[in-house]
Specification:
single chain, alpha+beta, five-stranded antiparallel β-sheet, 6 helices, 22% strand, elongated
Length: 284
């Protein structure tokens, strides 16, 4: 209704499609894991995520891996005024598969919602002015500023979480968590820490003295630990989507963390925190 009455200055929220090169890379990696995802639309991606949930809500470990990899390709949704783009398709909201979309339900915490309310009130009161209660320039300025503030608040929230985790890990020294192997290189293994949604890299050179690391890049890695004290020599083959126990260490720089793969024998009798399936959707 906003666009119908004010095609040149309605407050809208658009979401461009994903970054194609990153999406292609993520899709290829998922295929190597044996996971097929229809990336031709957001609906196809959502169906893949829904197929890897428990009770339709809690993501499985594989579901978290899919979400993490696909998220890398996603762009941010932003506010705009109608009239900014010549082609109607530019207002499309990719994530919701809607031609037109706006925020409306939370005027007490989002200013663009308040603008939408004011425009709708003007329509209901029979406002005949072409621009309605606000001009194109006014709506565009508010939309741009609101997008910037929303991005800044997201960055602040993300960094706060990263800082808290870094401080927690630094205080603990080493935190053992459940993870999933999501990438294997010729010198490293990438692991997604399930409880935190954190990706850490375990480097071959930091596995310890006498540890042998062999890998077929992008397929498997074989790690052999020598006998040490009461611990016997042991070997483990890691493949994509394998569940592992990974240690998280705080780096010297703020926010920086690294991963450690403890030898299996050293984990006997230790408490390992398992994934509990936290679900926290964001505004779109």
């Amino acid at each position: 209704k906003l666009y119908e009455c004010y095609p040149g200055n309605a407050i809208l929220r658009r979401h461009p499609g994903p970054k194609e090169n990153v999406l292609e890379s993520s899709t290829e990696l998922l295929k190597r894991m044996g996971v097929e995802v229809d990336t031709s639309s957001s609906k196809g991606m959502q169906q893949a995520l829904n197929a890897h949930t428990v009770a339709g809500l809690k993501p499985t470990p594989t579901g978290l891996v899919i979400a993490s990899l696909l998220a890398k390709a996603m762009t941010l949704a932003t506010y705009h005024s109608s009239g900014e783009f010549e082609e109607f398709k530019e207002y499309h909201h990719y994530g919701l598969s809607m031609d037109l979309y706006t925020h409306f339900t939370s005027p007490i915490r989002r200013y663009p919602d308040l603008i939408a309310h004011r425009q709708l009130q003007a329509i209901l009161e029979g406002c005949q002015e072409e621009d309605g209660p606000m001009s194109f320039d006014e709506v565009s300025e508010i939309a741009e500023r609101s997008s910037g503030k929303k991005y800044a608040s997201k960055q602040a929230s993300d960094k706060s979480g990263e800082l808290f985790l870094w401080l927690f890990v630094r205080e603990q020294g080493l935190v053992l968590e459940e993870g999933v192997v999501i990438e294997i290189g010729d010198q490293s293994i990438d692991i997604l820490v399930l409880r935190f949604g954190l990706q850490v890299r375990v480097w071959k050179d930091f596995l310890g003295d006498g540890v042998e690391f062999q890998s077929k890049e992008k397929h498997w890695a074989h790690i052999s630990w020598p006998a040490k004290g009461e611990l016997k020599a042991e070997s483990v083959r890691y493949e994509l989507l394998d569940k592992v126990v990974v240690g998280i260490k705080a780096g010297k720089q703020l926010f920086k963390t690294s991963g450690v793969l403890p030898r299996p024998g050293s984990l006997v009798g230790k408490d390992i925190v398992t994934y509990d399936g936290v679900y926290a959707p964001e505004d779109v």
